[in-house]
Specification:
The chain is mainly alpha-helical. The protein has one domain. It contains four helices and two strands; from the N terminus they run ααααββ. The protein has a two-stranded antiparallel ribbon with strand order 1-2. It is globular.
C-alpha cells in the first residue's frame, strides 16, 4: 500500500487539479493510476467523515481546500 500512497501523492503534487477527480470519482481515478482492487476499495471508503475544509497552498501557488 505504501507504493500506492506515494503514487497518489506524487500525482496530486504534479497535478493539483487531480484532487477534484479523486473526490468526485475515486475509483476511476485509482484505475487510471493502476491501483488494484484492495487499493480501490481503500480509496472508496477513505473519506466518509464530514469535516471542515481548510485552505492549503502548494509551493507552486495553487490553493486547495482539504
Amino acid at each position: 500500500m505504501t507504493q500506492a500512497v506515494a503514487t497518489l501523492l506524487n500525482e496530486l503534487t504534479v497535478r493539483p487539479s487531480a484532487l477534484r477527480s479523486l473526490i468526485e470519482r475515486p475509483e476511476s481515478f485509482g484505475e487510471q493510476l493502476g491501483f488494484n482492487s484492495a487499493q480501490l476499495g481503500a480509496l472508496r471508503s477513505a473519506d466518509k467523515l464530514k469535516r471542515p475544509m481548510y485552505p492549503v497552498t502548494f509551493t507552486t501557488g495553487t490553493t486547495i481546500s482539504v
